[in-house]
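Mods, move this if it's the wrong board.
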Amino acid sequence: DEPPRQTVSDPGVSEVVRRVLGNYLAGSAPELRADLTDDAQVTLPTITLRVREVSRLEWISGPDSGAVLATVAAEGPEGATYTLTYELGIAWHERPYVDFIEVVPTRS
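Not the wrong board. Structure tokens:
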């Protein structure tokens, strides 16, 4: 059973998630660090990608859960396209920050 999901309507959360995933997939550690909590530990992917679109952004178990699922369409350096889903932890300190990023495996 999957937990109930609700579309993210907070523009601040949407903006930080889009920015974080763009910097994360591009391997831009200094830019990424600006949107992470001080104690977040993130390992960058080994292949750099460019986010083309965030197609879904949903709270896991509602806005109080502190975690969102984001599905992105991304493009690789040789034009290959990928659809990827990530779980991101959201922490509030005057504005939203991300405290973790986890890959959500897909069924094949």
